[in-house]
User: What shape does this take?
Amino acid sequence: MYLDIKKDMEELKSDLIRSQSIVIKLQAELLESKSKQLESVHSTVKTAVQDTFQAGIITYSQAVSKAAPVLTEESLKKVVQNVISGEDRTKNVLIFGFEETSDLLVLEMKQIAKEDMQINNIISEVPKLRKERPFERAKDWKLIWDEDTLPAQFPQHIYNTAERPDIVVWSDSLREVVLIELTCGDESNFSDQVARKEARYNRELIPGIDGCGWKALLFTVEIGCRGFWHHTVPALFNYFGLAKRTKNKALNEAALVALRCSYTIWLARDNKKWSTCYDIARRPEVINCES
Assistant: This one.
């Protein structure tokens, strides 16, 4: 009986060793598979990044070549090579023991300065990629806004109409006019509010302005009753080129005013007549668009 038990134990031990060998083999195969997967992911990501980078370089090169055809790769390469060779010649002069005040060194420095000026001239011909602000293209911009107690008539020399957009900004020299229409409603209806206001002004006012030789641009801006703004609001500020800090300050102030007004309306829900003590909104400060 003892021999049988011993024999069974040895068989179990052999089975356990074989099982462990199988587990080790499976773990090795799993590690190999994971390594191949990591290599595949690394190769895919590397290829995607390289393609994106190359596409960005091609896009920028095309933009520069279209805007400034005088700047070619060969001309820029030639100037850079001349500057590099000039600097190398100057280093050689110093290495071989010439004085810094020697005529040869002075001549070399003048040549380098001349070639640096050529580079600056070429770079100055490259157009600015930053979009020009409206206020940088003219100095005669004017602004009016419409209120219930202080109604503002649309500039009649632009187009004769009874329409009253909330804010009108125009330049007589550029013959451009920006129409801004504000809506304060429920945040879930932002898209409907945009469509309704665009349909209203595209029906008669904007075609009439374009027909008079002016260029009209409409911005419908929406700020919700709970203090959330639509993406059209920062889009308007970006068009006028407001600095990031100024834009964020204006967005927060507009959201706070909308939220406070909604809360005040809710507090006065049982009153049949609006009292002046509920007027909590104040006129905003003048925004410096150049800051």
In short: The mean pLDDT is 75. The chain has eight helices and four strands.
